[in-house]
Specification:
Elements (H helix, E strand, L loop, with lengths): L1 H33 L2 H22 L4 H20 L1 H14 L2 H12 L1 H42 L11
Length: 165
Amino acid sequence: MKTIFTICLALMPLSLTLAQDKEAKKPAAELLELIRFKQIMKDTSNASFAPFLDKLRKQGFPEAGVKEVAEAAGVYFDQVASDPDLKSAMMALYEKEFTLEELKGLVAFYRTPLGQKALSKLPALTQSGAKLGEKFAIKHQAGFKEQMTRIMQKYKPAAKPGGGE
């Protein structure tokens, strides 16, 4: 009896540490579920891959082939998004950037109607914001291009005598 008590007493700190680790990971895992990380990952991958499929079509690739490529890509994106090691790595990333209390706060927020609305609107806002960013980058690119040309010319290596490079 004394031996069992001693073993239990010795293992108590380990048990508490494991419980704390599990507690710390729970909000990060719950957050990934609430933000629909797996689905967002697949949707983003598919959206990023769409221009390649369009390019295949424009090059005359048969539609059956485009469909087959899209299906293969979908399976691949699902494998990546479903990888438990990716989920663990993402949880670790969130745990590195946020305290346990902050993670709990994010979970609480995303459970609210406003949090759910934010989750539903953020992908479209991000996409629209990227388009706006591109539009305004184009608006200002001429001045930037001129500035870059001046800088590159300023630091361009001098040509070696005799036409060598």
